[in-house]
Amino acid sequence: MTNSNQPNQGFYPMAKLAIKKRQLIKKLKLWRKLWINRYQKNPTLQESNHDKKITYKEQLSYLYQVELDSFLLSDKNLSFPSTEKPLVSIILVLHNRAELTFQCLRSLMTVTLNAEHPCEIILVDNASQDQTNLLLERLCGVTKILNRENCHFLAAINQASKVAKGSYLLLLNNDAQILPGTLSAALDTYSSANDIGAVGGKIIFLDGQLQEAGSIIWNDGSCLGYGRGGNPFDYPYMFRRDVDYCSGAFLLTERNLFLEMGGFDEDYKPAYYEETDYCLRLWEQGKRVVYEPNAAIVHFEFASAQSNDSAINLQKAHQSIFTQKHSQQLANYHLPPAPENIVLARSHSRNSNHILYIDDRVPHAFLGSGFPRSRDILQALVDLNYCVTFYPLGFPEESWQEAYEDIPKVVELVLHQGIEGLEEFLNQRAHCYDLIFISRPHNMEILNPILNRNSQWFEKTRIIYDAEAIYALREVKKRQLLGKTVSQNEKKLLVQTEMQLAENADTVITVSEKEQEHFTNAGVNSVYTLGHTVDLKPTAKKFEERTGIVFVGAIHNINSPNADSVVWFAKEVFPLLQEKIGNDLTFKVVGFNKCQKIWDLQSDSLQVLGKVESLEEIYNCARVFVAPTRFAAGIPFKVHHAAAYGLPIVTTSMIASQIGWEDQQEVLVGDDPKTFAEKCTQVYFNQKLWESLRNAALNKIQLECSRDNFVQKVETIIKSQ
């Protein structure tokens, strides 16, 4: 007998069955709606594709449609975090193609989840007739503007900009997918200078080829997407630069600036040329438009237009409007459309000199061997607003991330070409460069035959040969240390052979007056000296708080001057110092090191550290810096660098002579093991001497290695005739 006070035990299964039935009916209705939207309006989709070829765009469209249908059949929503104070307002204009919008929104999930860059998403739907309304119903945390008719892209962007809350507007096509790190890269670039008005990025086709890496405006108002069809990771597209304009498919600009400029000019309704006009108006207002290579989207292209032809026709119609509005700007500052003008026109800075800089490798400071100076020259050229291409001749293989680690991102780095690719590169860039700046004798030896064979490529190109030093003299000194005899005639011949490398140079640079004199005596008319630039960073610890001796320098092989210095000091001098100072004395060898024989010197007291993240703490703890160099060419950067950190230096007479510093004044000098050890001991125990050497060297650095003077000297050399 059933207790009337107890609920009917059969009720719950029946209720569950009824609920499931209602859910099934709801899904069937939704599926029917999807089927009607998809197939009745697109009956060709019902046809079998087995017997016909379909494009990659069609294949991806089918896949995207399946993913959208699966999402709409689920019980899930696409939720974005909401914020009252967004940094960026991301604006998408929709008109059908819901499957592409869905992919775009999915790509934005990782962007909007970044708390560092809070975003709002504004969707403007221009009366879509497909599944867009179903998709919009399943979105949370977005702002929706629903237009009853298609007001097209331009008007919709202006409409959304007026309700946006972000400091920045990001215009993003709904047929685009934003790639990881893109928004951060664009924002970092935008905030890097006060005169930037817009930032665009790399736009990549669905097949992985480049659509554009910034765009060119020709003097007839026609436009060219730079790099179309290329590899997105080839060197011409991997450096940051000012451009005429960037596509509205991905364009970051400040909201207040956009509104002050009146938004997009409505004379370009319904679309096309509006972003071209906006960017050119920014330039006319003194604002820059910048292409950032680490910002990238994948783009369907022309997905919202009825056909590619209709989009192209719209562009042509608006070109005439654009040329009328900007006729003077186009005539005065833009080049005529021609293949030979593309490299010159890819950067907006038309009046800047274009410089090709050739050296062994990308000049990272940790490499030593003259590369810190090369890096400073490179930075000076950038500071002087030259358009610079850097060609690493001997070591061209490096990852992009490593290559740009301490190199200005506005420099074009020609990686992966090397010696084999140099002549073809110069052929492709014939007449593009106002100046070729080439460092080191062995590189000039490679360039000279190319210059002689192809003089027509360089009719208006000046050649500056940065010889740095007379390497023949270093070779002579090295042979003598090894006990080999070098006659005066042999020495003279070695020097003359090196002098002859300057035959094609209009100007020669050396690091000291001694080397300058050699070239002048050899008949070179235009010779300049250019030393180092070092920032003063005196370390804080007092004399009594410091211990140990340090050497800092890059060691590339056992035959290098730095390797010889360390081996000689470790075997001949350091044992004498341990006798005088104590066995607890430490000698640290710091810096890039590819020589196993140096690593093998390690012991409890002799520490080989290799490359370190920061040298400041190394210099702050050590009491004495040693530069026991017995053969070298040029001015050793390591001595200036150590002095700038306030570390007293013991070195050889050769180094003291090269930098023009005096024994007992700015440095201590010793050439044999006994004398070198005595000088180290003196400064190690004598606080007054330690402070005197430190202060005198700091004064020399301030006087001789000023960055302003260095940049000014570079400018003088570049402008010399």
Automatic annotation (TrEMBL):
InterPro entries: Glyco_trans_2-like, Nucleotide-diphossugar_trans. One of its GO terms (molecular function) is transferase activity. Keywords: Transferase. The keyword Transferase applies. It holds the Pfam family Glyco_trans_1_4. Gene3D superfamilies: Glycogen Phosphorylase B, Spore Coat Polysaccharide Biosynthesis Protein SpsA, Chain A. Residues 89-208 form the Glycosyltransferase 2-like domain. The keyword Transferase applies. This is Glycosyltransferase.
